Amino acid sequence: MKVKRQSGDSVDFDPEKLKRSLLSSGASMSAVEEILHKMTNEVYEGITTRNIYKKAYSLLKKNANFHAARYNLKTAIHLLGPTGFYFEQYIARIFESEKYETKTNEVLQGRCVSHEVDVIVKKNDRIAMVECKFHGSQDAASDVKVPMYILSRYNDLNQVTHKIFSQKDQITECWIATNNRFTTDAIDFALCSGIKLLSWDYPKDNSIKVKNYRDCLYPVTCLTTLTLSEKEKLLPLGVILARDLMGNPQKLAEIKISPKRIKNIIKEVTELCKCF
Asked: Rounded mean pLDDT of 272-276?
């Protein structure tokens, strides 16, 4: 059976892939098997992957809100757009969870021209620039032109010192982070050039997806008990991760959410962030 991706391409329907994604939500095997059984009669030739996701998400939500929230991860990261500003904040929070100091949206003078750097991180006296490539379409990929262009910016910046964390800092590493994936050529060029990559599925054992499931770095946009409008109001308040609401329910009160709903939202956050 063929299903249609967001890009318009047709691919074979893979029930095992769907099963793995459902299990990654934390739902039990019996719950996942029940969902797959219910979906058997709802998947048809030419159905879009988006519709498959929506059906599975709806069934998971009936099982448990926090399971649906975990399953919602990739879409939730996509909701940090459309400009990419909050995606940059999210990437900074990922580095902070790994004991990095961070700064965002810094303008630095290179040897030749000035550059706005999305995120700058420091750990053990090593300083890295992190360029973030946010894609509006979930099927888009960062191709080889991305690391080629960013390498030229890095080469201009690493030849001089900057006032970032101290008076004389030198950038010695370069990262590129994206919400989707990198093409094979982009990965090969980055490996050859010494650029570090972070994407939804790369590196395989330490990707954005893996970091989330391991360290509970779920963006607040994962939460099923919040409306889209409420999520958009929380982001400017500095609520980037769901766990930012733990012990901080006044942020919900600030956007006029009722006490009864606040209780339900905090319950979902607590269940979602049990690994924290």
From this structure: 74
Q: List the one residue out of 201, 261, 199, 206 whose CA is nearest residue 230.
A: 261
DSSP 220: G
**Token pair for residue 125?**
């006296």
pLDDT tens across 153-163, in order? 999 999 999 99
In this structure, what DSSP letter does residue 44 have? -
Q: Count of CB atoms within 10 A of residue 151's CB? A: 17
* Residues across the chain: 276
Residue 275 has pLDDT above 70, yes or no: no
pLDDT digits (tens, 9 = 90+) for 50-92: 888 888 888 888 878 888 888 889 999 999 988 899 999 999 9
C-alpha–C-alpha distance, residues 274 and 276, integer Å: 5
- Among 236, 237, 262, 240, CA closest to 249: 262
Q: How many CB atoms lie within 10 A of CB 198?
A: 20
Give the HSE-up count for residue 13: Cα atoms under 13 Å, Cβ half-sphere. 20
Residues 41, 227, 274, 260, CA torsion sign: negative
Task: Identify the residue whose tokens are 């620039």.
Answer: 129
Q: Which of 134, 136, 101 is nearest to 119 (CA)?
A: 101
